[in-house]
Structure formats: structure tokens, C-alpha cells
Design goal:
alpha+beta; Alpha-Beta Plaits; four-stranded antiparallel beta sheet; oxidoreductase
Length: about 100
């Protein structure tokens, strides 16, 4: 899970454009990326959260090293004031 905080509304709009492009490229090129869900945060218009699930560690490494992902990072970083990455270990849950 990753949280991004954008600098201002203009940066948030550009971040959303970059995200839409990146998601398309991930869907087309990364079969090991099982979930790549992006969300805006209610009542925090400058915050975005990504929830990502990979088939395995190798799929995550493939994702991180993909040219389209490296380009996304390069273009989005100047738009942000903070990034918070958390690696999760699954616990009890429900999936339908």
C-alpha cells in the first residue's frame, strides 16, 4: 500500500493523469500484477492511495524495474510532498 500527498490541486490533477497512463501500461505489460487499485482519499483532496497485490516477489521486482513504472516515478516525484510505503502481510479476510 502506498500513500501519496500532492503539493497542490494542479499537482494532484497531473498526478491523476500520470496514474491513468501508468495503470493502462501495467494492465497491458504486467501479468504478475494482480491488483493495482488507486483511490482518492475522502476529505483529503491532495491524497491518493494505491493498493497493489503481486503474484510473488518476482512480479513485484518486474513491476518496480519496468520502464513505464520508472518513468511514472520520475514524473510524479516532483508533484509530491510525501510518500508512505507499507508492505502488508495478509491476515484473516474476505474476498468474494
Amino acid at each position: 500500500m502506498v500513500r501519496f500527498d500532492c503539493r497542490d490541486s494542479g499537482a494532484a490533477a497531473r498526478f491523476d493523469e500520470l496514474t491513468a497512463t501508468a495503470v493502462r501500461q501495467i494492465a497491458e505489460n504486467e501479468p504478475g500484477t494482480l491488483i493495482y487499485a488507486t483511490s482518492a482519499v475522502d476529505e483529503e483532496p491532495l491524497a491518493r492511495v494505491f493498493y497493489e497485490v503481486y503474484r510473488d516477489r518476482a512480479a513485484f521486482e518486474t513491476h518496480e524495474n519496468a520502464e513505464h513504472v520508472r518513468r511514472f516515478h520520475e514524473l510524479k516525484d516532483p508533484l509530491l510532498t510525501a510518500t508512505r510505503v507499507e508492505f502488508l502481510t495478509p491476515g484473516p479476510g474476505l474476498q468474494r
